[in-house]
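Allow me, if you will, to draw on your knowledge of protein folds for a short while. The matter concerns a single protein, recorded as an amino acid sequence and a row of backbone structure tokens. Could you please explain, in whatever detail you think fit, how the structure tokens follow from the sequence? I remain grateful for any guidance, and I place the record below:

…
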Amino acid sequence: MAAELSNILPRVLIVSRRTVRKNKFVDFVGEYHLDLIVSYGAVPVIVPRVSGVHMLLDSFEPIHGVLLCEGEDIDPSLYEGEKTGLSPEELEEIRSLHASDTAIDKEKDTIELGLAKLCLERNIPYLGICRGSQVLNVACGGSLYMDIGKELSNKVAEIDRVMHMNYDDYDGHRHIVKVVENTPLHHWFNESLEDGKMELWVNSYHHQGVKRLAQRFVPMAFAPDGLIEGFYDPDAYNPAEGKFIMGLQFHPERMRKPNSDEFDYPGCPFAYQEFGKAVIAYQKKLIGSKSVPKPLQLNQEMEKKRKIIVRSFSIARNIYNAGRDTNPSKQSELEIGAQFLESNTALTLEQEGRLKQMGATVRNATSYFDRLKKNKQCEGLARKLMGKMTVEQLSDFRSFYHMMSQICTEVLEEKLQGLIVNEITPPLVE
């Protein structure tokens, strides 16, 4: 039963994060993410952060969804972060304060940006949490604050400043966000929004965030300091149809009551639920586009006719491969295939593709056979006529056609050269 389910359930790729344990590298993914993916009907497939994996992403097919979450800071060169204006002293202070996050992992960047771009190209459902939302924004041309404290907090009123991470209270830390109306986030948490304030207390753990949001996205929530806490692509959001492209800077999976698995709000797991719905729908759509009708069961008479037609196609292919007809007696067999095509002119794209793979259609093969026969007849007449000519006449005749051949070649080259020049520099239209 388990083996059957593994072949049926959609696959969601999650890239691991590397850390050091007992002086050895280990890769991990947060358990909450894995539990929620499984709970909503998908199979998490962990992509290890190992050198060279970015070149092996095709090996993880089929991909029905991608969830990207925790990790270190994204390489600033990927979003022009070097233009931030921060002094060397400030950059050193940031590295000292956030030592565990500022160590750039270029391999992880390459893997995750590759997966994000793959999702955008194919409309594969994508859910980005925290770093995963930043990866999505960068993949679409957006930029990031290298450090919220240095680049944003100092520019807003003290009352609007937000602590986006608390090293001493990883799971328990909360800060307020304002939800944007008529967005998926609004619908998920609608029951928990008191008196129309559109405010939620969320868990977060980050010192970077979206600075310039990529053009295709719409914000779903803001922190009091103006930082975007969630965004989505409205043109790529319809979970029932397999569409889901979204980034959340906060952590809904960790928003749980103390010493309990009960969520702070009923809407907390909805991001994963709707993402799971989109992943399942995407898989069904993918299977539907690749499904092949079962072959018809033919009786003996129909099977015999089928073999005759297939042989006709095979002869046509051999004629084109050889460039000549090795056996004129095969013309009658070619005509069978030609008659079949004439009575079945409305071919499907798949049928046309199969005919092209054979090298030529039977119609073309029959036409080729006819031209070959006419050429042989012309050749016979020419030999008969020239057999009656004298040596002098034949010599003059050959000299004349040699001269005509040279003239034809020269004129043809001039015409072709003229066509090329016209294509490169078309005439001006007044």
In short: The longest strand covers residues 228-238.
